[in-house]
Structure prediction request, 210 residues.
Amino acid sequence: MSHKPLKRLAVFASGFGSNLGAIIDYMEKNSVNGSLVLVFSNNPKAPALNRAVQHNIKTCVLEPRDYGSREEYDRQIAAVVQENKIDLIILAGYMLLLSSWFVEKYKNRIMNIHPSLLPAFKGMHGIKDAFDWGVKITGVTVHFVDGKLDHGPIILQKEVPVSQSDTLSSLEEKIHKVEHVLYPEAIGYYCQDRLRIKKRKVIITGIEKE
Ligand code: GRF
Prediction:
């Protein structure tokens, strides 16, 4: 058992929350040096919130329309992050862009998952865009968040082959299956203090050379 203090994790989710479910499951079944202490959403109707409640995880909802500007909104979120002493913010289908103020404040402490092999197919429709393009290999990327969309240092990537018989929905299913393994793995490395960031490169100690 590690004697390092447990990392305090928050998941930000706006929707369904299947990645949140996979993270909860992983944390419950494995000895991870971390604790998921907060689920935050901008959307009071997000099914992700119900998953959190079912697992006795604290939830918080703030709606952007109640704030004068995006930065004011993000400052209120930062106050919640502070109050809950969060080490790592995990974006899992969080549909709002974070302000540059927020991203700078939590530099190297925000992770995101994207359903393509970045830097290909950035943006909201990574799976469909790759499918429509006719790629034969796509995949999943877990990365740290920086000031540009789907751009920060890459922690893990995993390829997903696209077969002749795939439809958009069968490809989505394959991608989500991979996401649900890759995200917990990356979070596990963070909790074990195994991620070293050197400019754009993330080195996983014990697997990759520093
Ligand atoms: C995932 O495909 C993730 O890659 C993207 O948003 C989706 C969230 O799905 N960023 P869920 O809410 O975790 O089911």
